[in-house]
Amino acid sequence: MPNPSPPPAPSRLTVEAARDLQRLLPAEIAPGLDARELDAVEARFGFRFAADHRVFLSAGLPLGQRGWPNWRYGDADVLRVGLSAPVEGVLFDVGHNGFWHPAWGPRPDEVPAAVRLARAALATVPQLVPVYGHRYLPGIAGSWNHPVLSVHQTDMIVYGNDLADYLGHEFAGRWTDTDEARVTVDFWSYFFED
User: Fold this and answer.
1) Residue 41 confidence (pLDDT)
2) How many domains does the chain have?
């Protein structure tokens, strides 16, 4: 019996496909961010957009509905809170709910020491970047097709197999099976793998 073929590789999001997806959104779509603006946002806030996130934002910038980060004119403090929320949520659970990631080694007995060690470990993992509300993509420059995560402290689920799948799910009711989401970042995938 021949081996089954592997599933096809996910396609890369194009500007045209991103614009089609943006037509599904209940939001005003402002002109997209150009490469200079995207680079400036990354430099200002110290993170990198994944490649498909850059394509999406270059096609148009969703505005006018709470939850969309306004990377062009948004309040810097609000944007920083959105960027820090996943790490702060994990740290909250370390400090208040006994969470400890197995990759961090033995947990210190004292909560402040555990939080310090967890914060240092979290500084080494790819940052999660807000897409909409508490939906996030890993910010890995030049990378494509990460699953979109719904993040609330250490309660995380895959909300789309990639950015396009997520937008169809969230805004058009197109549900796809996320049980087979491709693992792209070991640390963050710990929260949604069995």
Assistant:
1) 97
2) 1
